[in-house]
Amino acid sequence: MINEAFAKRFFNGRNPIGLRVTEVDDQIRAAYQVVGVARNSRIQKKLRGEVEPRYFVPAEQPPAAVKSPTFLLRPAAGSAPVMEAVRKTIERVDPALPIESADSIEERIAPLTAQDRTTAKLAVVFGSVALLLAAIGLYGVLSYGIARRTGEIALRIALGARPGRVIAMILRETIGLVAAGLAIGAGLAYAASRWIESQLYGVDPQDPLTQALAAGLLLLVALSAAYLPARRASRRDPMAGLRQE
After folding, report:
1. Distance of alpha carbon 12 from its chain centroid, rounded?
2. I want to staple 82 with a disulfide (CB 3.0 to 4.6 A). Which of 56, 75, 184, 230 is the partner?
């Protein structure tokens, strides 16, 4: 049995089923027939980068006979009851047979990803702070810009424009401005995610839900920053607004 990386490197697109693979060592020369192609999987100490070509032979087939086999179990529920049942089964078969270790996949991978989990937590904190600062800055800039248009709003209302239409116009302009900024930001985020993809393990570099929530938050902040000053300006006496301007 070979993996997909092995088939891609050594068979170059040909169907490997039925072909033979020869293993040559210092004192051993063995030939195996390919009977299947398994999906790529990673070994414990190499969780990133390209998957290495690998092949698998029967445990009892010489010269690759395994004296200390490893069994992988996938329980439907918790692993503790399954492990206890496996221990009892092995004791019934051979009470003197030692069990070197029995760990879950999470326990095996945890030491290898400890630093990554810490980095991920720090990234969440810094990302949240960055999003908060962006929201505060966006609100301040937009609300200040709308507040400076008090005279324009008063003039439009004095000339007969309805306050609701004036507010809707300002909101449309704000949505267009923010949409352009979000489009540019999404493009930069996509480029950055492709750059860091090789550093990720078990995480999709493209998370539509997170991106949609961040964009929705910024859009909500922008609409609030535009609506509140425009609403206050539309409720003022047009003449007072003009005199202030």
Report:
1. 31
2. 75
Instruction: Please check the confidence at residue 67 and state whether its pLDDT lies above 80.
Output: no
Q: What is the pLDDT of residue 158?
A: 76
SS3 of 137-163: the string is: HHHHHHHHHHHCCHHHHHHHHHCCCCH
Q: Using alpha carbons, select from 66, 155, 47 the residue that is nearest to residue 105.
A: 47
Whether residue 191 has pLDDT greater than 60: yes
On average, the pLDDT of the chain sits at 80
Give this prediction's pTM.
0.56
CA separation for the pair 8, 51 (Å, rounded):
11
Instruction: Determine the number of helices (DSSP H) and then strands (DSSP E) in the chain.
Output: 7, 4
Helical pair 150-158 and 208-235, crossing angle rounded to 10 deg: 60
Instruction: Name the DSSP class of 55.
Output: B
* Six token digits for residue 212: 């949609």
Cis peptide before 205 (omega within 30 of 0): no
